[in-house]
Request: fold
Amino acid sequence: EVQLVESGGGLVQPGGSLRLSCAASGFSFGSVAMKWVRQAPGKGPEWVAIINVGGVTRYTDSVKGRFTISRDNAANTLSLQMNSLKPEDTAVYYCAFANDYRRGQGTQVTVSS
Reply:
């Protein structure tokens, strides 16, 4: 059974940092491109960052220079380091397969003073 389990969300002040993790199981993690997607209240899903099998990354413009996506294939883990957080980063963050609809249950990130 394919499973994606996110963790690491929480409440942080503007300018703060959080690190999200995603534990993957049930498939060959190292052979699949992965992404982080977020969904803010009342809005549609937005892709945040993508990492391919070779470790090449892309970011949506609003997070460039602040977020870093990475993967540890030995540990079957996808991560998202988020720095200089802004209130507009508030959303539920999902770990997902880059090329299909499957994603985890999400973790809430709230940026507020």
